[in-house]
Design a protein that fits this description.
This protein is of the alpha/beta class and 313 residues long. Helices cover 42% and strands 16% of the residues. Strands 2-3-1-4-5-6-10-8-9-7 form a ten-stranded mixed sheet. 36% of the residues are buried.
Length: 313
């Protein structure tokens, strides 16, 4: 039954959703429908650019309403499709819902590399990052106001995949594996979403000393048990599974499987929410020690910047 579901693919600009959705359609021999293409056709009919129509849609509910009605109709038709849309997960209630994420700097670089007529014209990387962040938040507020649907709530999805370093072919292979029940079947059945995260972007919450003496033999990522993950204000952190995360980093893996234990205000342990747990356990010393051991670089959280700088011998 699972492999007869439509697949929705969403993510912010630069996350790779168009590339992945095209690849999935080719691999699974399904029709791909892109809401972006629908908007471009509507813009053409009105003598506007896609950007002009998107800006107009923020003031005119009729435009979003027309596209949303199309998505509802397709979802109710029963046809199995690949849906490339930032809100299709809301309309395809029985679909397999894929959410793509990426590092904001990487996303901005990807967008800057596109032809100038496809997206806004940004002068610098920082401008692109700021504008993409603002656009994403504006879109989120529109969805919340119209449908009470929060695209940032990871529980809305079956699979969350980080495309920061993973190649499109790798992402497509893993998504197909999850759809066909060969990857993460237990997580998908019992406690979705299945997380496929870049191990270099996950914050440690334990001391590196606990890993000393561990077997450093490379371990294939697909042989690892999912890591227990928390998510707070767009940052992923380990709740349980530092050794598995370290093994994935030492093996050079681009992605590591995980389960979502808590997000933002959800409780983690000891009565602490995910935000409180992250703030109390992710320290400057832990981050520096983890980076030194694994050759990674994590952005230092604001709360940790006030910690005393670690002393290096």
């Amino acid at each position: 039954m699972g492999n007869q579901r439509s697949i929705t693919v969403n993510g912010d600009l630069g996350s790779g959703k168009s590339t992945v959705s095209v690849g999935l359609a080719e691999r699974l021999h399904l029709r791909r429908i892109s809401v972006g293409d629908l908007y471009r056709e509507m813009a053409r009919q009105r003598g506007m650019t896609a950007l002009q129509l998107n800006l107009h849609a923020e003031l005119d509910d009729v435009i979003d309403g027309t596209v949303d009605a199309m998505q509802r109709e397709i979802a109710e038709s029963g046809e199995r499709v690949i849906m490339d849309s930032r809100l299709a997960w809301f309309f395809f209630t029985k679909g397999f819902k894929v959410h793509l994420i990426t590092d904001p700097t990487v996303a901005a670089r990807r967008v800057l590399g596109r032809p100038a007529n496809e997206v806004e014209n940004y002068a610098t990387l920082e401008e692109a990052k700021d504008r993409l962040r603002s656009r994403s938040e504006s879109e989120r507020q529109r969805f919340l106001t119209r449908y009470h649907a929060d695209k940032h709530n990871l529980r809305n999805y079956d699979l969350v995949c980080d495309t920061t370093r993973a190649r499109p072919e790798e992402v497509i292979d893993l998504v197909v594996g999850a759809i066909e029940g060969r990857l993460g079947a237990r997580v998908l059945a019992d406690s979705p979403p299945l997380l496929l995260l870049d191990p270099a972007r996950i914050y440690p919450t334990g001391d590196i000393s606990a890993l000393r003496g561990m077997d450093e033999t490379a371990v294939a990522t697909d042989s690892l048990e999912p890591i227990s993950i928390g998510y707070a204000d767009s940052r992923f952190f380990v709740v349980d599974g530092h050794r598995r995360l370290s093994a994935a980093l030492r093996a050079g893996s681009n992605l590591v499987p995980g389960t979502l234990l808590a997000q933002d205000n959800d409780p983690v342990v000891g009565g602490l929410t995910a935000r409180e747990f992250f703030a109390s356990t992710v320290t400057m010393t832990k981050v520096y020690d983890w980076q030194e051991a694994h050759g990674t670089e994590l952005e230092m959280p604001a709360h940790a910047l006030g910690d005393p700088a670690p002393v290096r011998g």
